[in-house]
Amino acid sequence: MVAEADLTAEAATTRGQRRLDEAEGGARLLRERAAEALSALQTEAHEHRRAVRDEATTTLAAARADADASRAEARVLLTQARAEVKVLADRRDDITQQLGNLQGVIEALAVPETGQKTDEHPRAATDGSWSGPETAEPHLSLSTNATTGTR
Predict the structure, then answer these.
(1) Which of 38, 79, 117, 136 could form a disulfide with 132 if both were Cys (CB 3.0 to 4.6 A apart)?
(2) How far apart are CA 125 and CA 129, in angstroms?
(3) What is the pLDDT at residue 116?
(4) H/E/C letters for each residue in the chain?
(5) Domain range list for the chain
(6) How many Å separate Cα 129 from the centre of its chain?
(7) How big, in percent rounded to 5, are the helix, strand and coil portions of the chain?
(8) For position 127, what pLDDT does the model report?
(9) At 51, is the secondary structure helix, strand, or coil?
(10) How many other C-beta atoms can be found within 10 angstroms of the C-beta atom of residue 139?
(11) What pLDDT is recorded for position 130?
(12) pLDDT for 133
């Protein structure tokens, strides 16, 4: 019976040792797989971060290039607008000068109204104010609205 008990104990010990060895092997394998999975996830995360960083850098570079192009275009448009304003201002000044020169011609061509003596002809002052009598109505050709036909 002792021998039988020893055999049973030895068989149990052997089974236990085998189970322990299998458990340790399984745990080792599980740890290796977990380490490999963790390493793969870390590598994947690192590659993803790098790809996102590269994409952000590319997007930022493109945005800066677009902004530079927009600023350059705005400068060109501003220069063109300033040149156009200068041309228009010069044209306005030329027209103003021509109108000033024509004022004397208009005064010289003004025909006195019927019933007035030529000495009493109302004339526009050189500053544009009316120099005739207070109650007299200016001649149509001397009024400021001569082009529209109104007084």
Answers:
(1) 136
(2) 5
(3) 54
(4) CHHHHHHHHHHHHHHHHHHHHHHHHHHHHHHHHHHHHHHHHHHHHHHHHHHHHHHHHHHHHHHHHHHHHHHHHHHHHHHHHHHHHHHHHHHHHHHHHHHHHHHHHHHHHCCCCCCCCHHHCCCECCCCCECCCCCCCCCHHHCCCCCCCCC
(5) 2-107
(6) 50
(7) 75, 0, 25
(8) 54
(9) helix
(10) 19
(11) 47
(12) 47
Give Cβ neighbours of residue 132 (< 8 Å, ≥ 6 apart): 122, 123, 138
Which amino acid belongs to residue 113?
E
Using CA atoms, how far apart are residues 142 and 106, in angstroms rounded to an integer?
Answer: 7
Q: Hey, what are 78's tokens? A: 């501003």
Q: Which residues pair with 124 in a beta bridge?
A: 130
Q: How far does Cα 5 stand from its chain's mean position?
A: 93
Q: Which amino acid is at 82?
A: R
Q: List the chain pLDDT tens, one digit each, 151 residues.
A: 888 888 899 899 999 999 999 999 999 999 999 999 999 999 999 999 999 999 999 999 999 999 999 999 999 999 999 999 999 999 999 999 999 888 888 888 887 776 555 554 455 555 555 454 444 444 444 444 444 444 4
Give me the sign of the Cα torsion angle 60, 63, 68, 69. Answer: positive
Backbone angles phi, psi at 124, to 5 degrees: -80, 135
